[in-house]
Amino acid sequence: MSPGTVHQCKRPILPTYWERVRIPRFRGATARLLLFSSGYFLEKEIESSCARLGWQLLKIVLPKGARCSTAFIEHLLTAAVEFKPDFALTINHLGLDRQGEIATLFEKMALPLASWFVDNPRLILHDFPKQANPWCALFTWNQDTVAPLTALGFELVDYLPLATDTEHFKPGVVGKPAWRSPVSFVGDSMVRPVSKLLNRLKPWPQVLDLARQAASGFASSCAGDSLKFMRTESPALFKLWEELPDPLRRLDLEQFLTWEATRLYRLQRVSSLLPFSPLIAGDSGWRSLLPRGSWKLLGPLDYYRDLPGFYPLSEVNFNATSLQMKGAVNQRVFDVPACGGFLLSDWREQMKGLFEPGKETACYGNVEEIGGLVRHFLNHPDERLKIVSAARNRVLAEHDYTHRMKHMLKTLRRRYA
Q1: Do residues 374 and 320 touch, judged by C-beta distance below 8 A?
Q2: What is the tens place of the pLDDT at every residue in 197-242?
Q3: Which of 202, 255, 327, 372 is 20 to 30 Å apart from 344, CA to CA?
């Protein structure tokens, strides 16, 4: 190099954030999961499943109100580039904003976002009109909601039922002596949620009167949701629904019809248990619904701390499913046999894809059958044990939350890898 020659060093061109974050996904044998954390009950099952499957899990805590904030977005962007997740998961769309900015952000990051609905999607997505994009995959616990969600423009919508954590719900958990009972029911009376909706709809007394009259009809109807019921079987109520001043009030009416129908449905079925002196684990609303007698009110039980020890102490655990899920099953269908308890459940159409009817389940079809079936199973303990054993084997083989998470991973890998 001759004297006076100037050597210019070229500065390396650093990749942009978007180049760093848009990486290949699902390259490992296991998964790296970014979980939106809101305190929802299903998070514990997801965490437990990830630990048992050997997945890497990072939780990102949602802000108060479960909507986005600047700090949350910064945390999300940092986690996406540093943790390098294969996908993110939220329950019931929590953490997403109604403008669709968070969903668009996942599209820019080329990071799959899975949203698992375990409650009525319509009551959630009414407030999220701009969510559908190729990087947002929906999973739903209710097979009946797959078609409506697909109609909203989501490209990947998959049926993913509830399950149980067999490490938590297992035989041998010691319960309290006071929990021992021939027949028991765990469930809400629905008095409180119905009352709240009554107050919201008070300015429209004609709507309330007609909705009260229609509730029992919805309970017995084949319509899968309250809006469909109003459209097809209660045109006068549907007209009033259309005339309500805003979408939130219309949703209040849909939910009131659902919860009032559920209240009537449960009350009728639980009343059928009264000759057997049942133990009811639920809210104080039952005192205002049921006549005084030999039944006992235990009060609410903690799902995680109490129920694994409670279910085995009843000879017959009774189930009356919420009418927000007319075709789907709740967690009790899996939890009770997982810990060695016997369940008599209302029949749900989607049950036949999960268990072998008659062999792995005991179900009633209508309220008139309940008394005879309860009496039959109380008098035939060997038959109960046979069903419990078969149902537990099925749960262990197919219905642990690890099975659901593996199915989710397989579905996302097939689409995004």
Answers
A1: no
A2: 999 999 999 999 999 999 999 999 999 999 999 999 999 999 999 9
A3: 255
Region of 28 (left: φ > 0; alpha: ψ -120 to 50; beta: rest) is: beta
Q: What contacts 250, CB < 8 A, 6 or more positions away?
A: 241, 242, 244
Q: From CA 25, how far away is CA 110, in angstroms rounded?
A: 9
3-class SS of residue 100: coil
By the 10 Å C-beta count (0-12 exposed, 13-18 middle, 19+ buried), 186 is classed as buried
Please answer whether residues 96 and 102 qualify as being in contact, where contact means their C-beta atoms are separated by less than 8 angstroms.
Answer: yes
For the CA atoms of 14, 15, 16, 22, what is the dihedral angle to 10 degrees?
A: -160
DSSP 164: B
Does pTM surpass 0.85? yes
Q: How far apart are CA 46 and CA 168, in angstroms?
A: 13
CA gap 277, 295 in Å, rounded? 4
